[in-house]
């Protein structure tokens, strides 16, 4: 868990898909930096409220707001930002974390499952980035709060560079995210908007529980990539909170891989890890 400090004090952070897993860890870590946190959920209202309660009850954290939003729908995203600005005055950090997986061999993949993954994992990140940039530019620079006009963090995956058989829709969404992130950096860097990605590796979450919690899953994983260590969501939360702070001011337009060495073993051809 991130140690309490004040690197994001006075700032407001939206973290999409933050009712559990990596998003929850990022929300709590940024809360411990002193930030106000918007806990976004799609269907897990109870879980989102529990995350918000943890933040609100922790004296080291800022305040928390729970907002339901399907990030693939433009009006939902616009409404989430409006509610945030109404509650906290502005948005300083947007962590576009929400994502889905719908796995099939390519020749068996229904168009609707291809489209849903692209809609959430890529279009959703575009919509969140767009609204964040609009709010950053509306609000203007607050040099006493941050050296940046605003910060955008895209949650990617090692599969932005490692092909993944039976997961073409997911890998394509993460590959596309690289160019989206770098283009935002190129286009809005002159405005002092920073945009980066985090690429998690084998993180222990419910989505891949069958891999890390069973003997068979662990054996397959170790055979495929013996250097990989299992990560936990807090590993990503710590990196995200630092990346949102002024300590990383000179980092822009790059992906930070938090993968325990997974990219040193790029030969994944089976459904081994759900990332």
Task: From the structure above, extract its key features.
single chain, globular, 7-stranded parallel sheet, 41% helix, 275 residues, Rossmann fold, 7 strands, alpha/beta
Radius of gyration: 18 Å
Uncertain residue segments: 269-275
Helix content: 40-55%
Average of per-residue pLDDT values: 90
- Report how far apart the termini are: 21 Å
- If classified by CATH, what would the architecture be? 3-Layer(aba) Sandwich
Question: Helix segment count?
Answer: 8
Query: What is the element string, with H for helices and E for strands?
Result: EHEHEHEHEHEHHHE
Could you characterize what this model shows?
The chain is of the alpha/beta class and 275 residues long. It has one domain: 3-Layer(aba) Sandwich (Rossmann fold). 41% of the residues lie in helices and 13% in strands. It is built from 8 helices and 7 strands. Strands 3-2-1-4-5-6-7 form a 7-stranded parallel sheet, sandwiched between helices. The longest helix is centred in the middle third of the chain and has 29 residues. The two termini are 21 Å apart. The C terminus is likely disordered.
Concise overview:
This protein has 275 residues and is α/β, with parallel strands linked by helices. 41% of the residues lie in helices and 13% in strands. Strands 3-2-1-4-5-6-7 form a 7-stranded parallel beta sheet, with helices on both faces.
SSE topology sketch:
Blueprint (H helix, E strand, L loop, with lengths): L11 E4 L5 H11 L4 E6 L3 H13 L6 E5 L5 H15 L4 E4 L14 H29 L10 E6 L12 H21 L4 E8 L8 H4 L2 H10 L8 H11 L11 E4 L17
